[in-house]
């Protein structure tokens, strides 16, 4: 700890709300516990969930609250015998109910971090966890088989960026609902066809492509009423993975489709206090890092942002009001 400052800069959310009431503050550098690492944070990625909860709040938060779930940093202190060692670059997805990562140092459970290979830069690495893990969990729940059809709703978002690529590797026929400006990008990632979600007659387009039966699998990224709309496009006994909850399903639709429904929650690994699930986050992080290092998966484009109140506030607002084709990445140091 001799080379580590005793205090650190943090960005705090004073209270939840539409104004994103952030302030710069100073806190003591946290102390290590057993089987923990002290990490000097280099980059933090902002996700849509960060922006939504900064506006709506979360039941387990105490204010002021520090945002940021995805982080990359360098281990600067660790108990004897605890891996990874000092000097190692690590990637991790933090616990949603605890203070986040928009700060200069963090204490992290050693079992939850993924070691970053030399071939992957830290700013690229931090763009992978939340969206990439959600895509992997969704595809695992769907048990996608070669030749099956997969529809991804709101496919212009970050989760679809990874889900399209992994689904194609599994041999699926991948279809995407997206706004027209994003369609070429999604097709370059591997989507067989992108439907214009704002165009009338989408149902007729779908029938021309796959017939009347419907899709074998669907990833619903928005939740709410869009989940019910997606069920209309699912084949009988098809599988659907939902990332953001869903409305009450009308009984007639439920029995008409008899869907197999999977709910995706990256944060559930922490909220459920499941050590196995937290270790699984680490394994998924390692998979994402290795796939990017070996060029099996293309990482998203990045938008590097200063570690300042105004810049972070603008990034949160942008995440809620527009599709960010470039991931907002906060450079901490």
UniProtKB/TrEMBL annotation:
InterPro entries: ADH-like_C, ADH-like_N, ER, GroES-like_sf, NAD(P)-bd_dom_sf, Zn-ADH-like_protein. It comes from the Bacteria. GO terms for molecular function: oxidoreductase activity. It holds the Pfam family ADH_zinc_N. SMART domains: PKS_ER. The lineage of its organism: Bacteria, Pseudomonadati, Pseudomonadota, Gammaproteobacteria, Alteromonadales. This is Putative oxidoreductase. Residues 17-330 form the Enoyl reductase (ER) domain.
């Amino acid at each position: 700890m001799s080379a580590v400052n005793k205090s650190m800069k943090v960005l705090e959310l004073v209270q939840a709300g539409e104004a994103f009431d952030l302030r710069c503050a100073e806190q003591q550098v946290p102390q290590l516990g057993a089987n923990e690492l002290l990490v000097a944070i280099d980059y933090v990625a902002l996700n849509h969930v960060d922006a939504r909860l900064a506006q709506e709040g979360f039941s387990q938060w105490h204010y002021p609250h520090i945002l940021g779930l995805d982080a990359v940093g360098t281990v600067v202190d660790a108990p004897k015998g605890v891996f990874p060692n000092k000097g190692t670059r690590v990637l991790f997805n933090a616990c949603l109910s605890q203070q986040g990562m928009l700060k200069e140092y963090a204490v992290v459970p050693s079992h939850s971090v993924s070691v970053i290979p030399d071939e992957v830069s830290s700013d690229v690495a931090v763009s992978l966890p939340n969206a990439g893990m959600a895509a992997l969990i969704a595809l695992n729940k769907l048990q996608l088989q070669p030749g099956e059809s997969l529809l991804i709703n709101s496919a212009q978002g970050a989760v679809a960026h990874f889900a399209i690529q992994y689904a194609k590797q599994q041999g699926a026929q991948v279809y995407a609902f997206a706004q027209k400006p994003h369609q070429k990008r999604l097709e370059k990632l591997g989507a067989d066809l992108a439907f214009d979600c704002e165009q009338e007659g989408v149902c007729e387009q779908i029938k021309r492509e796959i017939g009347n039966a419907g899709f074998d699998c669907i990833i619903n990224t928005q939740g709410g009423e869009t989940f019910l709309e997606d069920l209309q496009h699912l084949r009988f006994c098809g599988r659907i993975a939902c990332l953001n909850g869903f409305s009450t399903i009308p009984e007639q639709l439920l029995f008409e489709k008899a869907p197999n429904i999977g709910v995706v929650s990256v944060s559930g690994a922490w909220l459920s206090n499941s050590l196995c699930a937290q270790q699984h986050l680490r394994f998924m992080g390692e998979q994402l890092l290795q796939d990017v290092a070996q060029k099996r998966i293309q990482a998203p484009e990045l938008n590097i942002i200063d570690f300042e109140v105004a810049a972070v506030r603008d990034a949160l607002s942008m995440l809620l009001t527009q599709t960010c084709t470039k991931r907002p990445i906060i450079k901490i140091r």
